[in-house]
Design a protein that fits this description.
It is found in: Cell inner membrane. This protein has 278 residues and is of the alpha/beta class. The protein has 10 helices and 10 strands.
């Protein structure tokens, strides 16, 4: 379980003067298997929160506990070991495009193998077998030997998911995984992430800009505004008044209807394909 307590981050503090507050006393827990959606406008602190958890950004105060480890306090070798326990899925995929799909997935094991293995890209047999299983799970087994730059955006994101899982993480951090994808592929990716977290009882935090998509697939939603939590609850409890408080005025009904229309069209297509196959 991930437990965040009174986490704050202030940038640009100099000479005793207070700087810009990116996070202010953020507190919540993510139990095993729960997928938590993190929403809010640009500048609300979503990316800062994720970067504090994996320590790409140093918190100003507070604790971040993954199991018994305070991620905010570890240093040096202990920090490197702690990061191995956190799988990261990126908006822009962060793949090495000249490498194959299999090599990109195996790169998730670099923190576990000796230097010579990473330098020569020679991995233990059990890591390779596991990588094949993961590629099968994300639907890319037939693409194992393709270069990453030959894949579509949705396929690249699936490689990123498999790479993160190859770390055998205790926590998934997902940074806007659908920002570069079309609506149908976005739903497929979010469905895959949700299913995998349920299967592995893996907690996850998803920084997501698409509110209807978050309401469809997240188990729970945390809303941030100017670095402070203003909502923490079930997706169905996120009404128009709260969304307006988080983001400002918007036609939320029209946005939901567009999402529902896209979802219905996708379901009709899947039924037609299933009927044709039968």
């Amino acid at each position: 379980m991930l437990s965040i307590d009174r986490l704050s981050k202030t940038y640009g503090t100099q000479g005793g003067a207070s700087g810009d507050t990116a996070l202010n006393n953020v507190t919540f827990q993510v139990p095993q298997g729960q997928v938590l959606g993190l929403i809010g406008p640009s500048g609300a602190g979503k990316s800062t929160l994720i970067r504090c958890i994996n320590r790409l950004v140093e918190p100003s105060s507070g604790t971040i506990r993954l199991g018994e480890t305070d991620l905010a306090a570890v240093r040096g070798r202990d920090l490197r070991r702690a990061r191995r326990r956190i799988g990261m899925i990126f908006q822009e995929y962060a793949l090495v495009e000249r490498l194959t799909v299999m090599e990109n997935v195996l790169s998730g094991r670099l923190g576990y193998v000796p230097f010579w293995c990473s330098f020569t890209r020679r991995f233990p047999g059990h890591d390779i077998e596991n990588a094949y299983r993961l590629l099968d799970r994300v639907g890319l087994l037939d693409h194992a030997d393709k270069r990453a730059d030959a894949l579509s955006g949705g396929q690249r994101q699936r490689v990123g998911i498999a790479r993160a899982l190859s770390q055998e993480p205790e926590l998934l951090l997902v940074d806007e995984p659908t920002a570069s994808l079309d609506p149908r592929t976005s739903r497929q990716i979010m469905r895959l992430i949700s299913e995998i977290c349920r299967e592995r009882e893996l907690p996850a935090i998803v920084n997501i800009h698409d509110v209807p998509l978050a309401q469809q697939f997240m188990h729970r939603i945390v809303g941030l505004r100017r670095g402070e939590m203003v909502f923490d609850g079930a997706p169905d409890d996120l009404d128009d008044a709260m969304l307006t408080e988080i983001y400002g005025a918007e036609d939320w009904t029209a946005m939901r209807q567009e999402h529902e229309d896209d979802t219905t069209a996708e379901q009709d297509t899947r039924l037609q394909l299933a009927g044709g196959a039968g």
